[in-house]
Amino acid sequence: MYVCLCKAVTDKDIQRAVQAGASSMRCLRQEHGVASQCGRCAGHAKEVLDDALQQQAPVTEATVTVVTGTGSGVCYP
To answer: Domain BFD-like [2Fe-2S]-binding spans what residues (predicted)?
Structure first.
């Protein structure tokens, strides 16, 4: 189902992004443009993101990448 009509992002796209390492709305916005235009999808996108994160296996320290700086960095490990 489409979550973000402005950027044509589906719930499956968000689930794949989480599988690739996305863990926040910031990552979805940077990589897919979610909630970057009209913003009406933000609430539902957050629900889909949270559901996908809960279905993921626990993250170990070895797979965590912390990105700091200007915000233009990579969200995926």
So the answer is: 2-50
Give CA angle at 43 (41, 47), nearest 5°.
110
CATH code of the domain in which 13 resides: 1.10.10.1100
13: its two tokens: 């796209």
Q: Per the structure, how many domains does the chain have?
A: 1
Nearest-10 Cα torsion for 66, 20, 4, 26: 0
Give the separation between CA 23 and CA 16, rounded to whole angstroms: 11
Q: Compute the distance between CA of residue 2 and CA of residue 8 in angstroms, rounded to an integer.
A: 7
Residue 46 lies in a domain: yes
In a domain, 34, yes or no: yes
- pLDDT tens string 22-52: 999 999 999 999 999 999 999 999 999 999 9
CB 29 within 8 A of CB 59: no
